[in-house]
Amino acid sequence: MSTRNDGRSPSEPRAVTIERGFARRSNGSALYRCGGTTLLVTANLTEAVPGWLEGKGTGWLTAEYMMLPGSTSPRKERRADSRSTEIQRLIGRSLRAAVDTRALGPRTLHLDAEVIDADGGTRTAAITGAFVAVVDALLATLGPDATRTVLKDSVSAVSVGIVNGQGLLDLDYVEDVGAEVDLNVVRLGGGGLVEVQGTGEGGTFSRNQLTELLDLAELGLDLLTKAQREALGADWPF
Questions:
Q1: Does a cis peptide bond (omega within 30 degrees of 0) precede residue 74?
Q2: 82 is in which domain, residue-wise?
Q3: Residue 230 in domain
Q4: Is 2 among the domain residues?
Q5: Is residue 99 part of a domain?
Q6: I need a surface site. Which of 5, 30, 62, 227 has the fewest CB within 10 A?
Q7: Contacts of 10 (CB under 8 A, 6+ apart)
Q8: Region 107-131: what's the mean pLDDT?
Q9: How does pLDDT run across 180-204, given as a tens digit for each residue?
Q10: Going by DSSP bridges, is the β-strand pair 28-34/60-67 parallel, antiparallel, or unpaired?
Protein backbone atom coordinates (compact mmCIF):
# COMPACT_ATOMS: atom_id res chain seq x y z
CA MET A 1 0.00 0.00 0.00
CA SER A 2 1.67 3.20 -1.21
CA THR A 3 1.53 6.59 0.48
CA ARG A 4 0.47 9.78 -1.25
CA ASN A 5 2.17 13.13 -1.88
CA ASP A 6 0.94 14.41 1.50
CA GLY A 7 1.80 11.18 3.34
CA ARG A 8 -1.76 9.82 3.60
CA SER A 9 -2.64 6.20 2.95
CA PRO A 10 -5.00 5.50 -0.01
CA SER A 11 -8.02 5.17 2.30
CA GLU A 12 -7.18 8.15 4.53
CA PRO A 13 -9.19 11.37 4.10
CA ARG A 14 -7.81 14.83 4.73
CA ALA A 15 -8.29 16.39 8.15
CA VAL A 16 -11.56 18.33 8.48
CA THR A 17 -12.45 21.24 10.75
CA ILE A 18 -15.82 23.00 10.86
CA GLU A 19 -16.23 26.39 12.52
CA ARG A 20 -19.87 27.37 13.07
CA GLY A 21 -21.18 30.92 13.14
CA PHE A 22 -18.25 32.41 11.21
CA ALA A 23 -20.43 34.96 9.38
CA ARG A 24 -22.28 36.83 12.12
CA ARG A 25 -24.91 38.42 9.88
CA SER A 26 -26.10 35.19 8.30
CA ASN A 27 -28.74 32.94 9.86
CA GLY A 28 -26.26 30.06 9.66
CA SER A 29 -22.67 29.70 8.47
CA ALA A 30 -19.73 27.34 8.49
CA LEU A 31 -16.06 27.86 7.74
CA TYR A 32 -15.11 24.46 6.39
CA ARG A 33 -11.51 23.30 6.06
CA CYS A 34 -10.49 20.03 4.42
CA GLY A 35 -6.73 19.76 4.03
CA GLY A 36 -5.72 22.71 1.86
CA THR A 37 -9.28 23.50 0.78
CA THR A 38 -11.22 26.17 2.70
CA LEU A 39 -14.76 27.40 2.08
CA LEU A 40 -17.21 29.72 3.74
CA VAL A 41 -20.81 28.54 3.40
CA THR A 42 -23.70 30.72 4.56
CA ALA A 43 -27.40 29.86 4.82
CA ASN A 44 -30.21 32.39 5.05
CA LEU A 45 -33.97 31.85 5.23
CA THR A 46 -36.38 34.26 3.55
CA GLU A 47 -40.17 34.41 3.86
CA ALA A 48 -40.80 34.04 0.13
CA VAL A 49 -40.59 31.47 -2.66
CA PRO A 50 -39.94 31.67 -6.41
CA GLY A 51 -42.96 32.71 -8.45
CA TRP A 52 -43.54 29.22 -9.78
CA LEU A 53 -44.04 27.95 -6.20
CA GLU A 54 -46.34 30.70 -4.93
CA GLY A 55 -49.59 29.38 -3.48
CA LYS A 56 -48.40 25.77 -3.45
CA GLY A 57 -47.65 25.65 0.29
CA THR A 58 -44.11 24.42 -0.18
CA GLY A 59 -40.66 25.93 0.16
CA TRP A 60 -37.44 25.88 -1.81
CA LEU A 61 -33.68 25.61 -1.36
CA THR A 62 -31.25 27.17 -3.81
CA ALA A 63 -27.47 27.47 -3.88
CA GLU A 64 -24.77 29.66 -5.38
CA TYR A 65 -21.10 28.72 -5.65
CA MET A 66 -18.05 30.83 -6.46
CA MET A 67 -14.30 30.44 -6.34
CA LEU A 68 -12.84 33.72 -5.09
CA PRO A 69 -10.13 35.25 -7.32
CA GLY A 70 -7.36 34.53 -4.83
CA SER A 71 -8.40 30.93 -4.18
CA THR A 72 -6.22 29.63 -7.03
CA SER A 73 -2.93 30.43 -8.71
CA PRO A 74 -2.93 32.07 -11.16
CA ARG A 75 -5.72 34.43 -10.07
CA LYS A 76 -9.19 33.38 -11.18
CA GLU A 77 -11.38 36.00 -12.84
CA ARG A 78 -14.47 36.98 -10.83
CA ARG A 79 -17.19 35.84 -13.20
CA ALA A 80 -19.80 33.12 -13.52
CA ASP A 81 -18.90 30.14 -15.68
CA SER A 82 -20.42 26.81 -16.66
CA ARG A 83 -18.45 24.92 -14.01
CA SER A 84 -19.79 27.12 -11.20
CA THR A 85 -23.33 26.75 -12.52
CA GLU A 86 -23.02 22.96 -12.62
CA ILE A 87 -21.60 22.84 -9.08
CA GLN A 88 -24.23 25.09 -7.53
CA ARG A 89 -26.95 22.93 -9.07
CA LEU A 90 -25.30 19.89 -7.52
CA ILE A 91 -25.19 21.61 -4.11
CA GLY A 92 -28.87 22.52 -4.37
CA ARG A 93 -29.93 19.00 -5.38
CA SER A 94 -27.86 17.47 -2.60
CA LEU A 95 -29.25 19.67 0.17
CA ARG A 96 -32.84 19.35 -1.08
CA ALA A 97 -32.46 15.59 -0.57
CA ALA A 98 -32.02 16.31 3.15
CA VAL A 99 -34.68 19.02 3.51
CA ASP A 100 -38.45 18.51 3.50
CA THR A 101 -39.41 21.57 1.46
CA ARG A 102 -43.12 21.08 2.18
CA ALA A 103 -42.45 21.15 5.93
CA LEU A 104 -40.35 24.27 5.35
CA GLY A 105 -43.48 26.10 4.25
CA PRO A 106 -43.48 29.06 1.82
CA ARG A 107 -39.88 30.01 2.56
CA THR A 108 -36.57 29.80 0.68
CA LEU A 109 -33.23 28.65 2.05
CA HIS A 110 -30.43 30.46 0.23
CA LEU A 111 -27.00 28.82 0.34
CA ASP A 112 -23.85 30.65 -0.72
CA ALA A 113 -20.58 28.72 -0.97
CA GLU A 114 -17.42 30.79 -1.40
CA VAL A 115 -14.13 28.99 -2.03
CA ILE A 116 -11.38 30.84 -0.18
CA ASP A 117 -8.52 28.40 -0.84
CA ALA A 118 -8.79 25.60 -3.40
CA ASP A 119 -6.86 22.34 -3.25
CA GLY A 120 -9.33 19.88 -4.79
CA GLY A 121 -12.71 18.65 -3.61
CA THR A 122 -14.36 22.06 -3.43
CA ARG A 123 -17.80 20.86 -4.53
CA THR A 124 -17.88 18.01 -2.02
CA ALA A 125 -16.62 20.31 0.72
CA ALA A 126 -19.35 22.82 -0.13
CA ILE A 127 -22.06 20.18 0.29
CA THR A 128 -20.67 18.86 3.57
CA GLY A 129 -20.22 22.33 5.06
CA ALA A 130 -23.57 23.55 3.76
CA PHE A 131 -25.45 21.01 5.84
CA VAL A 132 -24.03 22.48 9.05
CA ALA A 133 -24.91 26.01 7.91
CA VAL A 134 -28.47 24.88 7.08
CA VAL A 135 -28.95 23.35 10.53
CA ASP A 136 -27.85 26.58 12.21
CA ALA A 137 -30.02 28.72 9.92
CA LEU A 138 -33.10 26.64 10.73
CA LEU A 139 -32.35 26.65 14.46
CA ALA A 140 -31.93 30.43 14.44
CA THR A 141 -35.12 31.17 12.52
CA LEU A 142 -37.54 28.31 13.23
CA GLY A 143 -36.31 26.76 16.49
CA PRO A 144 -35.29 23.20 17.34
CA ASP A 145 -38.68 21.48 17.00
CA ALA A 146 -39.35 22.82 13.51
CA THR A 147 -35.74 22.11 12.52
CA ARG A 148 -36.19 18.44 13.35
CA THR A 149 -39.38 18.41 11.26
CA VAL A 150 -37.83 20.12 8.24
CA LEU A 151 -34.65 18.04 8.15
CA LYS A 152 -35.06 14.49 6.86
CA ASP A 153 -31.41 13.46 7.26
CA SER A 154 -27.87 14.78 7.12
CA VAL A 155 -25.96 14.88 3.83
CA SER A 156 -22.27 14.88 2.98
CA ALA A 157 -20.06 14.33 -0.06
CA VAL A 158 -16.58 13.09 -0.87
CA SER A 159 -14.38 12.49 -3.90
CA VAL A 160 -12.70 9.22 -4.81
CA GLY A 161 -10.60 8.29 -7.80
CA ILE A 162 -8.00 6.11 -9.43
CA VAL A 163 -4.51 7.59 -9.72
CA ASN A 164 -1.68 5.53 -11.20
CA GLY A 165 -3.92 2.47 -10.94
CA GLN A 166 -4.61 2.99 -7.22
CA GLY A 167 -7.99 3.80 -5.69
CA LEU A 168 -7.76 6.92 -3.48
CA LEU A 169 -10.13 8.61 -1.06
CA ASP A 170 -10.54 12.41 -0.93
CA LEU A 171 -8.35 13.62 -3.78
CA ASP A 172 -6.34 16.81 -3.49
CA TYR A 173 -5.69 19.00 -6.53
CA VAL A 174 -2.56 17.22 -7.74
CA GLU A 175 -4.29 13.84 -7.50
CA ASP A 176 -7.45 15.13 -9.13
CA VAL A 177 -5.56 16.54 -12.12
CA GLY A 178 -3.73 13.23 -12.63
CA ALA A 179 -6.67 10.91 -12.00
CA GLU A 180 -7.59 8.25 -14.54
CA VAL A 181 -11.01 7.98 -12.89
CA ASP A 182 -12.76 10.65 -10.82
CA LEU A 183 -15.97 10.22 -8.79
CA ASN A 184 -17.92 12.56 -6.52
CA VAL A 185 -20.30 10.73 -4.20
CA VAL A 186 -23.14 12.38 -2.25
CA ARG A 187 -24.90 10.39 0.47
CA LEU A 188 -27.40 10.89 3.25
CA GLY A 189 -26.29 10.10 6.78
CA GLY A 190 -28.72 7.19 6.85
CA GLY A 191 -27.04 5.60 3.85
CA GLY A 192 -29.08 6.58 0.78
CA LEU A 193 -27.02 7.71 -2.19
CA VAL A 194 -28.10 11.10 -3.54
CA GLU A 195 -25.77 11.43 -6.51
CA VAL A 196 -22.74 9.74 -8.03
CA GLN A 197 -20.77 11.69 -10.63
CA GLY A 198 -18.20 9.49 -12.32
CA THR A 199 -15.86 10.03 -15.24
CA GLY A 200 -13.13 7.97 -16.84
CA GLU A 201 -10.75 10.89 -17.36
CA GLY A 202 -7.99 8.81 -18.93
CA GLY A 203 -9.86 5.73 -20.11
CA THR A 204 -12.51 3.34 -18.89
CA PHE A 205 -13.08 1.62 -15.55
CA SER A 206 -14.63 -1.71 -14.69
CA ARG A 207 -17.73 -2.53 -12.66
CA ASN A 208 -15.46 -4.00 -9.97
CA GLN A 209 -13.42 -0.81 -9.82
CA LEU A 210 -16.61 1.23 -9.47
CA THR A 211 -17.70 -0.95 -6.55
CA GLU A 212 -14.30 -0.55 -4.91
CA LEU A 213 -14.46 3.22 -5.29
CA LEU A 214 -17.97 3.38 -3.82
CA ASP A 215 -16.81 1.28 -0.86
CA LEU A 216 -13.92 3.70 -0.38
CA ALA A 217 -16.32 6.64 -0.54
CA GLU A 218 -18.52 5.07 2.14
CA LEU A 219 -15.56 5.08 4.54
CA GLY A 220 -15.02 8.76 3.96
CA LEU A 221 -18.71 9.65 4.17
CA ASP A 222 -19.04 7.90 7.53
CA LEU A 223 -16.18 10.04 8.85
CA LEU A 224 -17.67 13.24 7.40
CA THR A 225 -21.04 12.53 9.00
CA LYS A 226 -19.21 12.04 12.29
CA ALA A 227 -17.42 15.39 11.80
CA GLN A 228 -20.75 17.14 11.17
CA ARG A 229 -22.25 15.53 14.27
CA GLU A 230 -19.30 16.59 16.41
CA ALA A 231 -19.40 20.15 15.07
CA LEU A 232 -23.11 20.48 15.85
CA GLY A 233 -22.83 18.78 19.25
CA ALA A 234 -26.08 19.04 21.21
CA ASP A 235 -27.70 20.70 18.16
CA TRP A 236 -27.44 17.53 16.06
CA PRO A 237 -31.09 17.22 14.96
CA PHE A 238 -31.50 13.44 14.64
A1: yes
A2: 16-235
A3: yes
A4: no
A5: yes
A6: 5
A7: 1, 2, 4, 166, 167, 168, 169, 216
A8: 98
A9: 999 999 999 999 999 999 999 877 8
A10: unpaired
- Do residues 143 and 137 make contact, with C-beta atoms less than 8 angstroms apart? no
Q: How confident is the model at residue 101 (pLDDT cuts 50, 70, 90)?
A: very high
| CA dist 208 → 167, 170, 194 (Å) | 12, 19, 21
* Count of residues making up the chain: 238
Angle (deg, nearest 10), helices 207-232 and 122-142: 40
The mean predicted confidence, pLDDT, of the chain is 96
Sequential DSSP letters for 168-234: EES--HHHHHT-SEEEEEEEETTS-EEEEEEEETTS---HHHHHHHHHHHHHHHHHHHHHHHHHHGG
User: In the predicted model, is pLDDT for residue 1 greater than 70?
Assistant: no
Exposure string over 111-130, b if 16+ CB within 10 A, otherwise e:
bbbbbbbbbbbbbbbbbbbb
Q: Is residue 162 part of a domain?
A: yes
- What is the rounded end-to-end Cα distance, in angstroms, of the chain? 37
